[in-house]
Amino acid sequence: MRASQFFLATQKEAPTEAELISHKLMLRAGLIKRLGSGLYSWMPLGLRVLRKVEAVVREEMNKAGALELLMPAVQPKELWEETGRWAVFGPQMLKIRDRHERDFCFGPTHEEVITDIARREIRSYKQLPLNFYQIQTKFRDEIRPRFGVMRAREFMMKDAYSFHTSFESLEQTYDVMYQAYSKVFTRLGLKFRAVKADTGAIGGDGSHEFHVLADSGEDALAYCEQSDYAANVELAEALPPTAPRAAPAEALREVETPRQTACEDVAALLGIPVQRTVKAIALMAPDQAGTLQFHLLLLRGDHSLNEIKVAKLAGLADFRFASEDEIRAHLNCPPGFIGPVAVSEEVKVIADATVAAMSDFVCGANKPKFHLAGVNFGRDLPEPVMVADIRNVIEGDTSPDGKGTLSLCRGVEVGHIFQLRTKYAKAMNATYLDENGQTQVMEMGCYGIGVSRIVGAAIEQGNDARGIVFPAAMAPFEVAIAAIGFDRSDIVREAALKLHDELQTAGIDVLLDDRGERPGVMFADLELIGIPHRVVIGDRGLQNGEVEYQARTDAAAQAVALTDIVGLLQ
Ligand code: ATP
Ligand code: MG
Ligand code: MG
Ligand code: MG
């Protein structure tokens, strides 16, 4: 590819709304263009990257025996009513009505559609197991789209669904998918970790997530160096056994205000051994339906309220750093209900029961503040509902398998596999006839990869002051030729075109910068867009039969004989 015939649209500055380095770099490199909130166009350069990721995913799915199909993005309401998810999926689902007043959604996921196919097409145990997959556009109306393509509303997912006659068969395919995912992320050159995971709105039993490791990741992961234990911190399993709920909550209500509560008192009241140190901050804000909700945040360590490490913002599936102002903006607190409404003293206990008790307490104790403000609960506003589902794991805790201590890191969820068992098949009556002619319900698994999110996650992991450092497997071009004086030197033009053609013949994706720009401009662009290898061709080097070669991660260039360069790059 010649740069003069391609579309490079790099920018010096990133728009200010981009928070993460990957988002900034994707915009600056011209990989994507924003159309609206959570909506991005993949420009020719970015699409090359996306397609490379897609190709690796497709190859590994095919190798693992999955069969590609393509389902409609728009799905009828009736299917979702069969599983009850039309009502429970919530505001993330984009609902659409057609000209005949019929309801549809733009698919956030495809369990219903594939189960409908399975129940119509699969008759006999002889046809099973089967694993279908697609690579397709999903839409989820995320409460806060951000980080560019990493939390977009419209995004590209690979979703696979497997059908089985037995749990053993499901476990086998689940394992094959687990291995295939490991291969995908290894081939893509990513540092990743597989962890046990919660099953969320998809449901089912066993589940693992695959995370690209990055400090900016939204998920906190706990893992044990001494064993293979690894789990998303959201998982309750990582916690010590919980104490009974009701009694401690009652006891806490008797304490006057949170500020006066010493951690030892709370621990004593709860009768739970002191294990951890947290602070709680309660905020009040309406949810999407307008119901007033209390949100409880647990803060860890000595963070000031302006630089809070948020263990979890309850009600929002989110782990991240945030300032108090940002949290307020995030929760869209109306002026009358300025958060935080209460901050507790440090409490050195934490377990499910404690969290519930603390939230009851912190919020309950502050209800009178709203009566001051002239609010009559039940008349002006609904009774506050507590939203608290907070888990907390601390570095150095004993691992739940007892084999060592836990370490923490952060990750970007790029893949998620589930053992759905019979949840969907039962609800939708997806059955087959077994060896004895008996009707049986199918076992199911499902397996997602965030194809477009991977591009952002990879850049989050691979970048430096000069721009993107793409792993070779997903770089838009593998080699760049910077031809100095292409427009005025015959020997440069000749050598550059010849090298370009030779590399192309050797099956290498090459971009020849033939724009006749100054070297500084060319180098800045080629580095920003993250091409792994660069060859500089200029008059001076050619006189000695040499070109300059530099890998994107090298500190300096080296002279290489023109005759050796193709061999070196192969
Ligand atoms: P998250 O926890 O990040 O919201 P999820 O658990 O809701 O993700 P799944 O239902 O497990 O997502 O979907 C499978 C994969 O799709 C995820 O592992 C992720 O890589 C990708 N994905 C989910 N939501 C988005 C999004 N809004 N933008 C880009 N990719 C996404
Ligand atoms: Mg989600
Ligand atoms: Mg998740
Ligand atoms: Mg998930």
TrEMBL record:
GO molecular function per UniProt: aminoacyl-tRNA deacylase activity; ATP binding; proline-tRNA ligase activity
Keyword Ligase: yes
Boundaries of every Aminoacyl-transfer RNA synthetases class-II family profile domain copy: 33-471
Enzyme class: ligase
One family name in Pfam for this protein: tRNA-synt_2b
Function: Catalyzes the attachment of proline to tRNA(Pro) in a two-step reaction: proline is first activated by ATP to form Pro-AMP and then transferred to the acceptor end of tRNA(Pro). As ProRS can inadvertently accommodate and process non-cognate amino acids such as alanine and cysteine, to avoid such errors it has two additional distinct editing activities against alanine. One activity is designated as 'pretransfer' editing and involves the tRNA(Pro)-independent hydrolysis of activated Ala-AMP.
Subunit details: Homodimer.
Family stated for the protein in its record: Belongs to the class-II aminoacyl-tRNA synthetase family. ProS type 1 subfamily.
Listed name of the protein: Proline--tRNA ligase
Taxonomic path: Bacteria, Pseudomonadati, Pseudomonadota, Betaproteobacteria, Nitrosomonadales
